[in-house]
Amino acid sequence: MILSISEFMERLFTGKNPTASSAQVKQRLKFIIAHDRAALTPQQFADMRQEIMAVVSKYVEIDQDSLEIRLESDNRFTALVANLPIKAVRTEEPMLTVPPAESLPELHCEETTPASESPTPLPPEN
Amino acid sequence: MSRSIVITSGKGGVGKTTTSANLGMALAKLNRKVVLVDADFGLRNLDLLLGLENRVVYTALEVIARECKLDQALVKDKRQPNLSLLAAPQTRNKTAITGAHMKALVEVLSRYFDYVLVDCPAGIETGFQNAIAGAKEAIIVTTPEISAVRDADRVIGLLEANRIKDIQLIINRLRPAMVKNNDMMSVEDILEILSVKLLAVIPEDEQVIVSTNKGEPLVLAEKPPLAGIAYENAAKRLEGESVPFLDLDASGGSLFARLQRWLSGKKA
Questions:
Q1: Helix %, strand %, coil % for chain A, to 5?
Q2: What is the pLDDT of residue A113?
Q3: Helix or strand holding residue B151 (H, E)
Q4: What angle do CA B164, B197, B175 make, to 5 degrees?
Q5: Which residues of A touch B185 (CB under 8 A)?
């Protein structure tokens, strides 16, 4: 088996194989416990996800294929973590008060690079 | 000052009753007056693990129903007179036992004993709610398995909701060789997920079955096996002594040791 560099480094420095069953069970437990603690049914979670997306979509266009909303648990603390890549900013935005156009420098809103947005602080990826 | 501690787990079969018997006996050996209360009404087992089944006449049910006096129902262990047992009824009587009953029972026992240890039934239903009603502290027993840890987390949440904040963890049936092979969660993995204070790590030990066959808790032996020593250490920690954890686990260590292990270990 050929190890990738990152796998090699992970084994070297943590002494752990990320594909070992102990790593898998830990990942699965973190996921299931986060959902247990939040006490949300799968239906409620799906509804919440829909509503969050509806709100965000009012302002920006989200990349539907690569968005991610999940619960994470650490140290008896549960967080809702959302990663919503933005495809484009909505050009017609009546909700926002913007300064008169002439005071702005040339603005081009057609294409923006996809950016991440997280409503809750993102814990460090592990 | 008396302490009332419920021993609970959520999941069944992880070693609550074994833990109750050994911890109770170990505390009694440290010269503490201990009463073990079997709260697993209808499925009592603690008397068997202690080898006291033939001496049970009255149970907690008769005490609650005022059909006998409290001291008539307490079975004193002849091998270790500091230890007493209040057995659970084996037949489910129509008398409904409530949390208030259990609370009153534990309060009365607290006047006479240094430790009131309540062996909780599995599950999180009425039996569990009754068992935790009188307790001020809790010991969670879990094993390094996905379902046991999940249930432990659930129970910790329920205990906190019931204002039991002093919660300690016993990780039972750890298999160091599997942990070393990354095929079992380590103590650190479990602590990271559950975030509670660690009281003891008990290695998997065949002697546990031998001791239950005989009705003699491990810690009664003159030279207890490793699991028995781990329970003795747990009792000392409950007493406030700082005892280092047994070195069961060969993993971890310096970068060099890990590098060595990695190089000699499986590459596939």
A1: 40, 15, 45
A2: 45
A3: helix B146-161
A4: 125
A5: 22, 25-26
One-letter amino acid of A82: A
The residues, ordered by sequence, that sit 6+ positions from B169 with a Cβ below 8 Å of its Cβ are B139, B140, B142, B152, B190, B191, B194, B196, B197, B198, B199
Taking phi over 0 as left and psi of -120 to 50 as alpha, with beta for the rest, B157 belongs to: alpha
C-alpha distances out from residue A48 to A54, A72, A80, B180, Å: 10, 16, 11, 41
Asked if this assembly's ipTM is beyond 0.85, the reply is no
- The Cα B4–Cα A21 span in angstroms is 38
Distance (Å) of CA B69 to CA A13, B57, B81, B249:
63, 12, 19, 48
Could you tell me the pTM of the whole model?
Answer: 0.78
CA distances from A94 to A53, A59, A88, A111, B262 (A): 19, 10, 16, 19, 60
Residue A92, class by beta-carbon neighbours within 10 Å (0-12 exposed, 13-18 middle, 19+ buried)? Answer: exposed
Chain B residue whose CA is closest to A16: B182
At residue A96, the pLDDT reads: 54
In this structure, what are the phi and psi dihedrals at residue B85, rounded to the nearest 5 degrees?
A: -125, 135
- The pLDDT tens digits for B67-122 are 999 999 999 999 999 999 999 998 866 567 899 999 999 999 999 999 999 999 99
Name the residue with tokens 């079955």: B209
Residues of B with CB under 8 A from a CB of A: 146, 149-150, 153-154, 156-157, 179, 181-186, 189, 192-195, 251-252, 255, 258-259, 261-262, 267-268
